[in-house]
Amino acid sequence: MNNQVIYRQINKDYAYWIEKRRLGQSKGGQVAGLLSHQVEGQVKQNILFDAGLGTIEGLADSCADSFWDEPLLIFITHGHVDHHAELMILSEIYCQRRGRDFRDVRSPLPVFCTGETQQHLFNTHRYGYTAGKTLHHRPLTPETPVQIGIFRITPIPVDHFEGAVIYLIEFELKRRHKIIIGWDTTTLPLQQIEHLCQPSLALLETTTWSSLAQEIGHSGVEDLITTGFLAQLQVQFQPEQERYGAYLVHYSGWEDPWGMLTDAQLKDKFDETFPEFAPVVRVAERGQCWSFT
Ligand SMILES: [Zn+2]
Ligand SMILES: [Zn+2]
Questions:
Q1: Which residues contact 292 (CB under 8 A, 6 or more apart)?
Q2: What's the gap in Å between 82 CA and the centre of ligand 2?
Q3: Dihedral sign (CA 54, 57, 63, 69)
Q4: Is the domain 3-292 a CATH 3.60.15.10 member?
Q5: DSSP states of 72-105
Q6: What is the β-pairing status of strands 135-139 and 146-148?
Q7: What is the number of helices (H) and of strands (E) in the chain?
Q8: Which of these, 19, 114, 271, 290, has the minimum number of CB atoms within 10 Å of its CB?
Q9: Per-residue pLDDT tens for 121-140?
Q10: What's the Cα-to-Cα distance from 231 to each of 33, 61, 133, 235, rounded to whole Å?
Q11: Which numbered ligand comes closest to the C-alpha of 163?
C-alpha cells in the first residue's frame, strides 16, 4: 500500500514579506504549512497550520484544485494576525464553494487552538463562527495531545503571546517520525527538549539574526545557538533516511542593524558563522515539500 505523508511549507515569511520584493523575491506570504496523509494517491486528511496573508494564493500555487474537495482541518499557533488573517475567507471558500452538485456545501471547518487564541480568532472572524457558520472551534489544552487519523499532535506552550503554542506532530508509517511546527517563539522551549529531540523535520522561527527576543518577542538565529537549543535538538540531515534537518522560517531581518538579507545571504552567513551546524540547517523555500513513509 502506498501510504505516505507530505508536509509542504505553503509560505515562510514574516509580516514584512512585502519588503522582500526589493530583494528580488516576487512571491511570498506569512508562515503556513500543510500536512497531508495520502494513501494510494488519495488524500485521507489535510491539516493546515496557520492561515496568514498569502495562504490562499500559496495553496492555489502548490495544490491541485482537488484540495478544496479534500478533508481539511486547521490548527492555529497563536492569535497574532499574521497567523490567521485569511482564516475566514479560506473557510468561506472551502465550505461554500459548490461541488458538482450545487447542494454540495460543507460543514464548518474545525479550527483547533487554545481558548486564548480562540478569543482573538472570534473577534477577527466572528461572522465565520456565527452567521457564516463556516468555522467551528475545537479547544486545545497545552501539553495534551490530540489524535487526528495517524497524527498525534501535541500543543507545546510557549511564552510568545497569550495562549501561544508550537506543535509537535508524531506519526508512524514504515518509520517513526516527528515534525516540529516551531513558530513563533520568544523563549525557546528547552524544557520540552526531550519530546522535541531527533525530529525528522523541524521548522524553526528566526525572525532576526541578532538576539533581540527581549525587545521584539521573537527568536533570532543567535538564540538557536547560544541557548544550546539547536545542539540539544539533535537534528540530522540524511534525506535518504527521511531525516531532513532544520529549516528556518518567519525570517524578516528588518530589525537587524544591517537590515534584511536574502535567503541565500542568510544561509551563507549561517554557514560561515556556525560551520558545525551548516550541514543540518537551511532556509525554507516557499512551496517546498518533504515526504515521509
Ligand atoms: Zn506571533
Ligand atoms: Zn508571526
A1: 4, 5, 6, 7, 171, 173, 175, 177, 179, 200, 242
A2: 5
A3: positive
A4: yes
A5: EEEE---S-GGGTTTHHHHHHHHHHS--SSTT--
A6: unpaired
A7: 8, 16
A8: 271
A9: 999 999 999 999 999 999 99
A10: 25, 35, 45, 8
A11: 1
Residue 181 CA, ligand 2 centroid: distance in Å: 12
| pLDDT tens for each residue of 139-176 | 999 999 999 999 999 999 999 999 999 999 999 999 99
* 8 A C-beta contact, residue 246 and residue 202: yes
Amino acid at the residue 169: I
CB within 8 Å of 226: residues ≥ 6 apart? 211
Residues comprising the chain, all counted = 293
Q: What nine digits make up the cell of 112?
A: 483547533
Q: How far is the CA of 83 from the centre of ligand 2 (A)?
A: 6
Which residue reads 541565500 in cell numbers?
Answer: 264
Per-residue cell: 171? 506519526
The set of cell numbers assigned to 153 is: 499532535
Interval between CA 252 and ligand 1 midpoint (Å): 13
- The CA R_g of the chain, rounded to the nearest whole Å, is 18
Whether the model clears a pTM of 0.85, i.e. scores above it, the answer is: yes
Q: Is 235 exposed, middle or buried (0-12, 13-18, 19+ CB in 10 A)?
A: buried
